[in-house]
Write the structure tokens for this entry.
Amino acid sequence: MSGPVSLLRECAAIRIPEGTLFALPAGTPVVLMQALGGSYTVEAPTFGGLFRIAGRDADALGLAPAPRKDIPAAGPAGPVTEEAVWEQLRSCYDPEIPVNVVDLGLIYDLKLLPHRSGRSRVEVKMTLTAPGCGMGPAIAADAQQKIAALAGVAEAEVAIVWDPPWSADMMTAEGKRRLGMA
């Protein structure tokens, strides 16, 4: 998609960076800024800024939903692997930055714990690039939903923490390369 398009139908969106819910009306002109991790960041000048549209609403943009990427795990009845969780987290993006949360250095801790079901409970501690980012709950919810969708996961929890404070030094070499910092 290049240039502005008009939304084909009303769709729910999240205003960036405030993180507030907003209904973009049908016919709203938007420009696609980013399509990563199964969601879309659009600019809607009529409403003064950027919005995140969920992948399930791709049709409102005239797009087909991105195919789901199912990560193989130990099996539906067994525990998930740590590698599978890390790979799933690499599909989560800040809607303003074209780098995944892992390469941005936002994931501080990942634990796999046994669950009574024989599957795993996954606990993740993550931070944000700035404490005032209203998108934090949306990014954490996206990560939690993607982890919970993995075979072998019984429960997933993603907590936002602020200690230690994030800095660009926490980014991976790949994250720095993608942002032109390496």
Remarks:
- Residues 5-61 form a domain with the SH3 type barrels. fold (CATH 2.30.30).
- The chain is about 15% helix and 30% strand.
- The first helix runs from residue 82 to 89.
